[in-house]
Amino acid sequence: MWKTMALVLLATTASHAIPDATILKDVVSVSVQGDGHWTTAEHDVIRLATDEGVSQFGTLSRTYNAETTEVVVQQAGTVDAQGTLHPLPDTSIHDQAVPEVQNDPIYGRLRQLSVTWKEARPGTTIEFRLETHHRHLLWPGQVWDSSWLEDVVPVQDSLFEVSFPTGLAMAWHGVGRMEGVAPQVDTSAGRETWRWHAQDVPGLAQEPGMPPLAEVAGRIEVSSATSWADLVHTLQEAWDTATDPGTLDLSSWLKPVAGLTGDARLSALVREIQQRTVEVNAPVVPPDWRPLPLEQVAQARRLSSPDRVVLLVGLLRALGVPATVGLAGDG
User: CA dihedral defined by 273, 274, 279, 281, rounded to 10 degrees?
Assistant: First the structure.
């Protein structure tokens, strides 16, 4: 959702008498189907108060993997004092291949959706509705989604709801101020719905020594794994499988470090990867919990940071070093 980007992009160090913006309404609705496909619908209304608020929220940008995801703009515009929505022109909405990687054999599947409120000024209220259709994440049938109910600007009203067939096992996990906050549960017509509702939530401020706000802000994550520990275990298995060298011929990568040991060998491997691959910038490649296999990344010349990690760990394992990818939050 929008706050995912806002929390990463902005870290204030002092409180403001007037917030840069106020999120008047934030609704995220996840609808899970029996086959594991799911749709995430978002509806946001945001009042911009300062030039910084316009800069922060005046453009909505989403990068996604077109093989597994489709993002559709249902509505976008500005709201006048009477509450009437004035739609943006079509020229303000773009969905295109990511220019930096559009011809890349690995990342050419990525697309970037952008919605720009070109006429937005302090005092403007903007509104949008998006639908994201997920075909699968890690494997067919696996569901994993989340929503922040807290932001760096005040949130007047925030709702996260998840609807799924009653026979489908789902688990939830709260972070920050939402830790341990159980949802309201309703069951009707063969479906169960979980709802988390927050109102009048003040904006967060980054303080010295605090972790990044995206790690501590109140959020809820949901998954069709039997438990959160099971999801983390499955993710770890996926990364371990991706970095397994098996019988791959990696001699061209390992030859430069022959005879080296310890830190010298590790440093040499890192240098080799940096020299032989070009890093694809993080904003270009969205978070993807389905790591590419070592066989594929070892042949590529353009790699994202996570895919470079796959290559490094795979090469270490090929050398007999018991390396693995450590997942943040896995305890």
Answer: 130
- Which amino acid would we find at residue 277? T
pLDDT at position 15, please?
A: 43
pTM for the whole thing? Answer: 0.84
Q: What are all long-range contacts of 24-29, with beta carbons under 8 Å and residues at least 24 apart?
A: 24/125, 24/156, 24/157, 25/156, 25/157, 25/158, 26/1, 26/2, 26/149, 26/155, 26/157, 26/158, 26/159, 27/158, 27/159, 27/161, 28/1, 28/147, 28/159, 28/160, 28/161, 29/161, 29/162, 29/163
User: How far is it, in rounded angstroms, from Cα 206 to Cα 14?
Assistant: 8
pLDDT tens digit sequence for 43-65: 999 999 999 999 999 999 999 98
State the sign of the Cα–Cα–Cα–Cα dihedral 186, 188, 191, 197. negative
Low-confidence ranges of the chain (pLDDT < 70): 1-17, 136-141, 210, 214, 282-289, 328-331
Pairing of strands 302-304, 278-280: parallel
CA 124 to chain CA centroid, nearest Å:
27
